Amino acid sequence: MRQNRYVLGTILTLAVMLSITPSVSAQNIPDLLDAGTTPDSFAYGFKRLFEALDLAFTFNENDKVVKHIKFAELRFSEAISVVLKGMPEFVDGLTRDYDKQISDANKIAGLAENANDRETLSELVVVITSKHLEVLDKIKDIVPEQAKEKISSLKEIAIKGSTEALKNLAQENPKNL
């Protein structure tokens, strides 16, 4: 009986210690959108389906840019989340999707009819990609070694997206840069 109490006491002590120890997760990183459902979940396919439908039924081009940016942020957060969960095998697909969302946002922003809209939307892409670069700099030391290359790929895409948006801004108003 005494041995059972000892084992139970040890288990409870370990449980309390583990619950108060800070863990490394995507939710502990400031400025990172909550990834929600990630590719390791059964429901992820439904999430992506609803995103595609949402985008398909968005007819205003400016709203499409905002949605592409939102979806890029989600892919970025999902990529960071799965890396920190120790599942880097999902990052390649998320990285491709992140690149596509940023590229589509830049393309549509550059084609906006109104000059002010082009400028505002391009600035939004620059702000978001800059935020992503800050997050990547914050986590570079805490990601597992096997995921550093994948994080580097995300960084390259964010830089490319920001550069493209800055080019759009330079074409619109070179004096502001």
Summed up, what is this model?
The chain is mostly helical.
Structural summary, described in words:
The protein is mainly α and 177 residues long. It has one domain (24-176). It is 71% helix and 0% strand. The chain contains six helices and no strands. Helix 3 packs antiparallel against helix 4 (91-110), helix 3 (61-84) packs parallel to helix 5 (115-139) and helix 4 packs parallel to helix 6 (148-172). The radius of gyration is 21 Å and the shape is globular. The model is unreliable at 14-28 (pLDDT under 50).
For this entry, give a set of tags.
single chain, 177 residues, mainly alpha, 6 helices, 71% helix, globular
Give the strand tally. 0
Number of structural domains: 1
- The overall pLDDT average reads 84
The SS-based structural class is mainly alpha
The rough form would be described as globular
The count of helical stretches stands at: 6
Distance between the termini: 75 Å
Fraction of residues in β-strands: under 5%
Runs in which pLDDT lies below 50 for 5 or more consecutive residues are 14-28
Approximate helicity band: over 70%
Subunit organisation of the chains: single chain
Q: What is the secondary structure topology, with strand pairs?
A:
Blueprint: H1 2-20, H2 44-56, H3 61-84, H4 91-110, H5 115-139, H6 148-172
